[in-house]
Amino acid sequence: MFDRFKEILLPERVKPSFNSTLKGIVIRAVSSYLAEKKETGTFYLFKGKDILIKIGINKDSLYPFMFSFLCEGFTKTLKYLNEKQGYVTLEGPSFRKTEDCREINPVYLLIEHMPKNRIDAITLNSSFYEKEDVRNSLFSEDIRILLNKGHYKIHYNITSQNQSLPLSDECAAKISAVYNEIIITDDLEACYD
Amino acid sequence: MKAIIKKAHMLRRAVEEQTSQYYHSTPLVESTHRLKLKTSAHSFRLKYGLKDLMLIGAITENPILLTGGTDLGKTALSCMMMNSLFGKEEEGWHRLDFDLDFGKDAFTNVHSDFFHESGKSLQDLYSIHKWMRLPGFIADELNGGHSKVIRKAIHIIKEKDITLADGRRVKIGCGIEDEKTYQYQIATINEGSEYSGTFEMDKALRRRTTIEIPLDIFKASPLDLFKMKRSSNLKIELKNTTSHFKDILDIFKAAKSIKLHPAAELFLSFLEALDYCEYSPTKTKSGLEKRGDSIRYICSKKIDEAPMGCRYLKLLKEELCPHIFGISPGLSKDMISVAQGAAIIRAVKFAEVLHDIKEGNSYYLDSSRDSFIDSLKMYVDSEEENLYEAALTKYINDLEVEYEDLVDIAPFVIYSKVGMSKVWLEKNCNGNVYQGLQILIKEACDKYKEGIKRIDMSNVEINMDLHNLMSENNPWLLQALKPYTMTEQKTGSILDYV
Asked: What value does the mean pLDDT take over residues B320-338?
């Protein structure tokens, strides 16, 4: 019987580990398109050179799944970034379409869960701001939040899913007036160089 | 056992379905469990929600205490749980409001026709209300009456044994076998000085509610709140008319037969041994009078006129030792009972893990899906075609209450019963009991594992080496190990020779 005490100390056969060659992490929220369609399947929450976490979507419990995974995903990213300096890209339109989804906005989650010195740059994918009528105001607000929390280098990725979603000149001018490090790009890979 | 796990799976599904109007996706427990292989283990992650914990209460017949501020839906949740498990109100369960009027009339029937009919004995005058025999019971606002009056409820909650006005003792709950009864009880309370209509809950009554869930700490997530706003249902509907009582009883009986893994058994002894006190005359903390809510005063004593601090004072974080007591043997039994239910729900969840992996996902894993499949093959020791079914069968056949099960349920069982000092909590956790418990459990787990790592378990003997090793830095494990090395003395009598 006594040898069974030590069963709780059995070593892990496979140690959970992240690939050290990973350079960029894309946090991809599940798109609202899928939410509306209530599709069931596997999506990638983290994606980079290696896939870190996949998420399963259960159509009956779609929203709780998405939310809990986002939170969990950020915690894991944080753990990873504590070891490796990495790039973080936020991608996905799902939670930033309307004002009332603010509490589950990935931008909020990101800045709440990550120390600023661990983030080299944030790419705000234009697909976050898919709806034209709210794009400029929401984008400005996100920028304001990020600025309040620290000095991040922010990329705005203009093209999403072959769709160009530019900011208004007025918005771009307003932001660049207070923050000159914002880079508007249509090349996601360029963010990692 | 496989049939039981399937029943538990169906029951859990029914509960989820029937309580879907109560939005609560915040996990209460997030833990790592391990698939044990010959020389290694493979981890997977599990989460237990609010309804899982309440279901554990039902399948182990352990009373639940829901605490928290008003407007959290405690009563609504209790009703939905009861409805999903036992069907219609008054047919499968009853809800009683505890207030200043609570007394024997609340549960006793006095037959007025007794005085008019002849041939009746005094026994016919009093009987308990029919609903006291139902399998489900909600004690709503249990602290709503004066604690000296409500103390009567001590015989209802868990004990299920009350005295009628004529002195007869009566068992409450639904009869199952050999005069045993079953009744799943949920109590709710609003707690705090701002609830002026409530009274402090009697310690003994609180002790009888085995699983305590502080809803203030596990509030609904922003998404739940969002869904609540969107929901068009203003009134909770209790639609279920089917009672699952028979299935619950089958699971309840099976849960009782689940054995404790030796490491879990030793861990419980370890938690009990936290009551050990080097400087106490009785060697126990519980034998000492508290001063200012802890026994910190005992931690230094004069030896040859010089004050000597206890060598164990710094072994636990933030000098925790004098601010906590070990768990009592009764609490230890409660933990076993609740953990038996947790083991059943764990097996149900393991089946979900396997299903997820079979479907090509790896939601529950920190490692790759392929490596877990490899581990499954090692686990069943074959390349069987029906790998997942074989793995589940083995997992269920080997089902024991694991050390991890105890860790999972511990905060809810010992919540207000382990006697943590308020002063210590205030200083280290801003008064948050749950946070204090997390520290206590983590410290206990670390110390327990560290101790086990150090000793040769293939030959546990309390020899001088082990004694010296343990008495230096782990007196609690030393105490916990003692019974394993003792042999029972044969009792003899001179009469044997006469």
From this structure: 92
Contact A4 B261 (CB under 8 A): yes
Q: Percent of chain B scored above 90 by pLDDT?
A: 37
What pLDDT was estimated at residue B278? 86
Q: Is B36–A103 a contact, with Cβ atoms under 8 angstroms apart?
A: no
Helix (H) / strand (E) containing B41: strand B41-48
H or E element: which one contains B25?
Answer: none
Predicted local confidence at residue B379, as pLDDT:
93
Bridge partners of B44, per DSSP, are B33
Residue A59 is part of which domain span?
20-192
Looking at the domain assignment, is residue A51 inside a domain? yes
Nearest to A76 by CA among B365, B369, B349: B365
Chain A residues closer than 8 Å to B222 by CB? 67, 103-104
In 3D, which of A68, A67, A33 has the Cα closest to residue A160?
A33
The chain A residues in contact with chain B (CB within 8 A) are 1-16, 42, 54-56, 61, 63-64, 67-68, 100-101, 103-104
d(Cα B204, Cα A103) in Å, to the nearest integer?
A: 42
Q: CA-CA distance, A193 to A188, in Å (whole number)?
A: 10
Contact B37 A10 (CB under 8 A): yes
Q: Is the pLDDT of residue B435 over 70?
A: yes
Amino acid at B346: R
CB atoms within 10 A of CB B473: 15
Task: List, in order, residues 6 or more apart from B360 with CB less than 8 Å away.
Answer: A42, B369
Residue A79 lies in a domain: yes
In the stretch 213-242 of chain B, residues with CB closer than 8 A to chain A read: 221-224, 226-227
Rounded to the nearest integer, the mean pLDDT of chain B is 84
Would you say how long chain B is, in residues?
A: 498
Residue of B nearest to A45 (CA): B363
pTM recorded for the entire structure: 0.73
Of residues B141 and B350, the one with the higher pLDDT is B350
Residues B142-179: pLDDT tens digits? 877 776 667 777 788 888 888 877 777 888 888 888 88
CB of B371 within 8 Å of any CB in chain A? yes
Nearest in space to A167 (alpha carbons), one of A122, A132, A123: A132
pLDDT in tens, B368-395: 778 889 999 999 987 777 899 999 999 9
The percentage of residues in chain A with a pLDDT greater than 70, rounded to a whole number, is 13
| pLDDT tier for residue A127 given thresholds of 50, 70 and 90 | low
* pLDDT above 50: residue A100: no
Structurally, chain A folds into a number of domains equal to 1
Q: Please report, in angstroms and rounded to a whole number, the separation of the first and last CA atoms in chain A.
A: 58
Q: Which of B40, B223, B261 is the closest to A64 by Cβ?
A: B223
Residue A3 lies in a domain: no
Question: What gap in Å lies between CA A22 and CA A50, rounded to an integer?
Answer: 7
- Residue B30's DSSP bridge partners are B47
For chain B, domains (ranges, CATH) are 2-256 (3.40.50.300), 275-323+420-485 (no CATH)
* Residues in chain A within 8 Å Cβ distance of B266: 5
**Structure-model confidence comparison of residues A35 and B26, the more confident one:** B26
Query: What does residue B315 show for φ and ψ, rounded to 5 degrees?
Result: -70, -35
Q: A178 in a domain, yes or no?
A: yes
